[in-house]
Amino acid sequence: MKILIVYHSLYGHTLQLARAVEEGVKSVSGVEAVFRRAPEFPHTEKELEAGEGYATKVWGEQKRVPVCTVEDFRQADGLLMGSPTRFGNMTAQMKALIDSLASLWLSGAMEGKPAGVFTSTASTHGGQETTCVTMMIPLIHLGMLIVGVPYSTEGMIHTEARGGTPYGASSIAGPKGELAPTAEDLAICRVQGKRVAELAKKIGGQSNHGIPLDLRSTRRFHRRHAHNVAR
């Protein structure tokens, strides 16, 4: 039983959330946490390698994390996906990774698998909810089962300047990235990771796991809709 945790992070906030999510997944017996990062754009990698700032330091820590592949998605029994916000949406790096999954959409390989999302934003209202919701949309197209964070989770009902949404775990980084995820933020991440892992175990092999749909139907579907994937 494998749960894929894939994230994108430039300044390390979403990376910290991802590690807490990983801890939650690992707390469930019989489940393997597969930790991956979204591929960074080549020009950004060059800038980070040549730089001397904080982002370069974070890059040095995370570039050893294996890059996520389509096969990682295919083999996963569940998914947790995290991205900082860009104008209320996921980063282009994460979107590019999702856009590479057309073959899994056509085969139905992700159908019936549980998936959760998490995010980090600069401000309280800078995309805490919209980033999570927009990350869900392609996962719904892939046939995945969306897993949020219930309000029964400790720390969810609050009026403090920190993260925690029913759509997914979150954190506030600050306008200059000066803040770190709070203890409550990280606890909610662990709950979400554990929740997805436990649901994956309950579903236990009922999803398609890469087995194609009826071959003739799949071929007809592919011919009819291939232009939607290509353009």
Structural description of this entry:
Strands 1, 2, 3, 4, 5 and 6 form a 6-stranded parallel β-sheet that branches. This protein has 231 residues and is α/β, with parallel strands linked by helices. The chain has helices spanning 13-26, 42-50, 54-62, 70-75, 92-99, 102-107, 130-141, 183-203, 215-230; strands at 2-7, 32-37, 78-84, 114-121, 145-146, 168-172. Mean pLDDT is 90; it is low at 210-216.
Task: List strands and helices in order, with pairings.
Elements: E1 2-7, H1 13-26, E2 32-37, H2 42-50, H3 54-62, H4 70-75, E3 78-84, H5 92-99, H6 102-107, E4 114-121, H7 130-141, E5 145-146, E6 168-172, H8 183-203, H9 215-230
Determine the N-to-C terminus distance: 35 Å
SS-based class? alpha/beta
Largest sheet: number of strands, sense, barrel closure: 6 strands, parallel
> Could you tell me the radius of gyration in angstroms?
18 Å
Which H/E pattern describes the elements? EHEHHHEHHEHEEHH
Strand-residue fraction? 5-15%
Detail the poorly predicted runs: 210-216
Average pLDDT level: 90
Helix content: 40-55%
Tell the overall outline: globular
Count the E strands. Answer: 6
Number of helices: 9
